[in-house]
Inverse folding.
């Protein structure tokens, strides 16, 4: 019956279906409450070092029970006390009777609550950044491989001048590189709330240290360092500014917009049969249409990316309604919006890594699409060649205009192939350049500096960005479909 109970209540698909174990653990109760205990240990150690009457035995007792959280007892305490932090203070004190008088000494609830959130945000970025680096690496390899392969460019989703498959991938890469810098900056800008007291004035700690301001500042510095942060915010209310959450989630929402654009492009190209995401040998695309190969991974990314972008409104509104030193209407919202943003970004990056490791290109289809459009694009080249051969530009322009209209009618009204080239070849007017036509219609002459742009962009901007993550590049993604 217990196994069945699991299916009797809602489970977030972000955890049950999608996100990695490491990100799911990062926002778990186990991580949260053991971090609270470590923060109480850091506080006691620093207070002892600065002269408060705390013993080694008390600290050792706390350390020996840092990980054995009695969740049932904590839940029962919270039911009685209606206060989650005090419930865990009592639960910790129960297994640490000698240390009970000094647990949470001088602190307010946000000492453990906010500082733990900052640790989770920092560690969440530490999980995401290598994943983003791997996506960029796989896509950079793809761009390099196809740097020279001409393909139709599209503006307004209408055929435009040629680009290359690799150059198009660099448009995706440029956005991802911006996201990498944004995530890294948001990570590096994070500070610790530290030891600030009830309204951020450190009054309780100043009283504990009998008015010694230097000791209060040193306490803040020591705990910040023990928690692995280089700096603490110099001013806070009861909480750290909720604009910090805005800053963090903005970088993730921006990543969501990038991934949505990339995966929409892949879906459009899949419809053209030019590029496809990887497809398992026994994977079924449609229950009704056996021939279908739906871009389900890209669709999943787009679906989740919309949620990631939508979550951005939560921290913006929360930051705007924090009255004076704080109100508690941030708490329930942040329990949802902070973890969900990181969990969503996590599965998006894992899925995108899987896609970019197995993108399939169909050069013959790409070539056919180019052949259908290139004759129209080559008209300027034909006119220039005729002028060099001594013909009048206006006369040539009119000849080409008439033949182009006729060819367009075949394509649009009859559903035929573009026969402009055949019409040019049949017209004696173009005899002077007949031997040049193949060269004038070589797709590689229509891509401009795309291959050179790819090479320079990858070497100057992309590869250097990946240097700090070299040791983590070989991780493969086992994607559950």
């Amino acid at each position: 019956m217990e196994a069945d109970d699991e299916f009797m209540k809602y489970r977030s698909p972000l955890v049950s279906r999608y996100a990695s174990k490491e990100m799911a653990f990062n926002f778990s109760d186990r991580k949260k409450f053991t971090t609270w205990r470590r923060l109480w240990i850091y506080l006691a150690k620093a207070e002892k070092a600065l002269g408060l009457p705390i013993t080694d035995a008390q600290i050792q007792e706390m350390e020996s029970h840092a990980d054995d959280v009695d969740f049932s007892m904590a839940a029962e305490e919270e039911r009685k006390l209606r206060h989650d932090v005090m419930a865990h203070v009592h639960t910790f004190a129960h297994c640490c009777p000698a240390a009970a008088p000094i647990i949470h000494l001088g602190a307010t609830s946000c000492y453990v609550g906010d500082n733990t959130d900052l640790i989770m945000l920092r560690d969440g970025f530490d999980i995401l950044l290598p994943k983003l680096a791997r996506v960029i690496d796989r896509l950079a390899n793809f761009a390099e491989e196809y740097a020279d392969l001409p393909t139709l460019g599209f503006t307004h989703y209408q055929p435009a001048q040629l680009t290359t498959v690799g150059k198009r991938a660099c448009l995706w890469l440029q956005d991802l590189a911006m996201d990498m810098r944004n995530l890294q900056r948001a990570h590096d800008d994070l500070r610790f709330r530290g030891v600030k007291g009830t309204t951020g004035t450190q009054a309780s700690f100043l009283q504990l240290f009998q008015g010694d301001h230097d000791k209060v500042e040193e306490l803040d510095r020591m705990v910040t360092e023990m928690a692995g942060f280089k700096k603490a915010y110099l001013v806070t209310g009861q909480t750290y500014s909720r604009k910090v959450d805005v800053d963090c989630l903005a970088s993730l929402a921006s990543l969501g917009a990038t991934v949505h654009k990339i995966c929409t492009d892949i879906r459009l190209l899949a419809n053209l049969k030019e590029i496809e995401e990887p497809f398992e040998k026994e994977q079924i695309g449609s229950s009704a249409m056996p021939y279908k190969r739906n871009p389900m991974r890209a669709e999943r990314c787009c679906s989740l990316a919309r949620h990631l972008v939508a979550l951005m409104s939560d921290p913006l509104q929360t930051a705007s309604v924090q009255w004076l030193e704080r109100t508690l209407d941030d708490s329930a919202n942040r329990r949802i919006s902070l973890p969900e943003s990181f969990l969503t970004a996590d599965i998006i990056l894992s899925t995108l890594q899987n896609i970019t490791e197995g993108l399939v290109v169909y050069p013959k289809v790409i070539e056919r699409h180019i052949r259908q459009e290139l004759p129209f694009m080559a008209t300027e080249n034909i006119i220039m060649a005729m002028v060099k051969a001594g013909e009048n530009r206006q006369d040539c322009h009119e000849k080409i205009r008439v033949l182009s209209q006729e060819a367009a009618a075949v394509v649009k009204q009859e559903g035929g192939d573009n026969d402009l080239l055949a019409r040019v070849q049949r017209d004696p007017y173009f005899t002077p350049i007949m031997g040049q036509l193949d060269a004038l219609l070589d797709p590689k002459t229509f891509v401009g500096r795309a291959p050179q742009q790819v090479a320079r962009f990858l070497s100057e901007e992309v590869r250097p960005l990946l240097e700090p993550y070299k040791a983590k590049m070989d991780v493969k993604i086992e994607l559950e479909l």
